[in-house]
Amino acid sequence: MQYIRVFLQFVFLCAPFVLVSASHAQDVEKLYKDHCAVCHNPYRLGAMGPALLPENLKRLRKKAAIDVITNGRIATQMPAFKDKLGKQEIESLVEFVYTPLKQTPVWGMDEIRASHIIHNKESDLSDKPVFEVNDLLNMFLVVELGDHHVTLLDGDKLEPIHRFKSRFALHGGPKYSPDGRFVYFASRDGWISKYDIYNLKLVAEIRAGINTRNQAVSADGRYVMVANYLPHSLVLLDARDMRPIKYYEVKDGSGKTSRVSAVYTAPPRNTFVAALKDIPELWEISYEDNPPIGFDGWVHDYNPDSGENVKPEPFPVRRITVKDYLDDFFFDQEYVSLIGASREAKGQVVDMDLGRVIVPDLELPGMPHLGSGITFDYKGRTVLATPNLKKGDVSVIDMETWKTIKRIETLGPGFFMRSHKNTPYAWVDVFFGPNKDAMHVIDKRTLEIVKTLRPAPGKTAAHVEFTRDGKYALLSIWDPDGALIIYDAATLKEVKRLPMNKPSGKYNVYNKTRYAEGTSH
Ligand code: DHE
């Protein structure tokens, strides 16, 4: 009896709070419906504006989100709400959009197909560039995150050719077609855009996911593969017009699904390779017209006893069991060894020919940012070097013995490392902490830091890429009032500064399409 009385008292005392919070929930849903749904989709999946889900907002602190709603976002369609909404309403909207959805949204083949846009038919576009440059392969694309634009740069004259609007929040390296004429961009919201550099026009777009990690273009230029966090899928597109070809629900034998950490193309193998974040497997997907025997997927359809030559299923998957979930990976230049890092900050090496882990405990102390590793020759041996997101050092690992030969101490954790075969130097940034304005230059011959540049004191200096010949290094000042700074890669002297709006990555057509040593692939 006593318990019942206490329980009833509890219910009585709590009732107003329950009512308040229920009506609060309705209020905030109404606020969202009235003010946000038209641009961000009634289910927060994104439309003209980005998706408003915790998975998509990881990069935006709640304080910054409050500021965006209050004051709007410069150079976007996002208006200021400070005259329409009170402080508390804005704060509750922020809490709302950082709350996970009750049900996982569906984004399957039907939704993907329905999002497909053809902007310009490729057959209507000329194959002659509408501008003049000496070397079409020495052009760069620079992603400017500040106002979601991309600048096309002449790598000989080191001058901009054109600037165009991108989707909201591009992430990861854009990927070129093998001839360098087309480029494919991925936004965090899942939009994949094909752009014709010669005609300075969009060709086609499609939304392949709700929260996308990255995309890869096949070495033959025929396909694009998209890796998603939400839903748990890989999506294969026809590179000509971005039409979807195949949807892979990413799951293991027991039906457990997984986010995809990243996908890359492995040119000599004619495959895409994807790392999974929630299942200890790597997936290799063949895009050869005649997929090789031994690949899972079509092997089941083939019955050697029947004597029939059953046509293999296209784009089959080969699953390789790994020791731990992989958050990132990169390849050696031959695309046989895959070096992966897990969330426990442990590395492993997978021999892709053997299809198994050959080094289970590679020393990778502070988790590298994906695609940040570079390989180069050090005293006749191939080494890999990578900065770490959690530690101020660069690990240098011998790729024969897989032992760490040096840890180069830096002024803080770094995001990106770059070099070029024609330069003795590797550049690594210090992305976090009080020294975020520093850029270290390491001599690849001695593995020592020979210079630390501070091109814009107080502003983040990050991400370097080289011209085709390796003579110039281009560096970003990662700030709305930022710049692209061009250095003579031999003397380390500044050559010129081009103002830009939070420039992030820059991508040289030659280095990327040739999968050059020292750059991201
Ligand atoms: Fe990146 C590349 C993952 C945070 C800027 N980043 C990549 C790639 C992956 C990845 C998988 C390779 C894709 C490719 O090129 O095909 N990034 C991750 C993360 O897991 C992490 C740590 C957390 C996250 O939010 O996803 C992360 N990345 C960031 C940033 O905060 C950066 C600095 C700013 C931003 O754009 O959000 C950032 N990532 C970049 C850039 C590249 C990149 C500029 C391409 C580098 C290149 O030279 O190729």
Description:
By secondary structure, this protein is mainly beta. Among the domains are: 2-97, Orthogonal Bundle (Cytochrome Bc1 Complex, Chain D, domain 2); 363-521, Methanol Dehydrogenase, Chain A. Helix content is 13%, strand content 36%. It contains six helices and 33 strands. The chain has a five-stranded antiparallel beta sheet with strand order 1-8-7-6-5. It has a four-stranded antiparallel beta sheet with strand order 4-3-2-33. Strands 9-10-11-12 form a four-stranded antiparallel beta sheet. A hairpin with a 2-residue loop joins strand 21 and strand 22. Helix 1 crosses helix 4 and helix 3 packs across helix 4 (87-97). The longest helix has 34 residues, at 2-35. The chain is globular and about 70 Å long. The N and C termini lie far apart (71 Å). It binds heme D. Heme D (DHE) is lined by residues 58-59, 145, 171-173, 213-214, 262, 369-371, 415, 463, 504-505, 520.
What topology emerges from the helices and strands here?
Blueprint lengths: L1 H34 L1 H4 L21 H10 L15 H11 L11 H6 L2 E2 L20 E6 L4 E6 L4 E7 L9 E2 L5 E5 L4 E6 L4 E7 L3 E7 L5 E8 L2 E6 L5 E6 L10 E7 L4 E6 L4 E6 L30 E5 L6 E4 L5 E5 L5 E5 L4 E7 L11 E5 L2 E7 L5 E6 L5 E6 L7 E2 L6 E5 L9 E5 L4 E6 L7 E6 L5 E6 L4 E7 L5 E7 L2 E6 H5 L8
Antiparallel strand pairs: 1-8, 2-3, 2-33, 3-4, 5-6, 6-7, 7-8, 9-10, 10-11, 11-12, 13-14, 14-15, 15-16, 17-18, 18-19, 19-20, 21-22, 22-23, 23-24, 25-26, 26-27, 27-28, 29-30, 30-31, 31-32
Bound molecules: heme D (DHE).
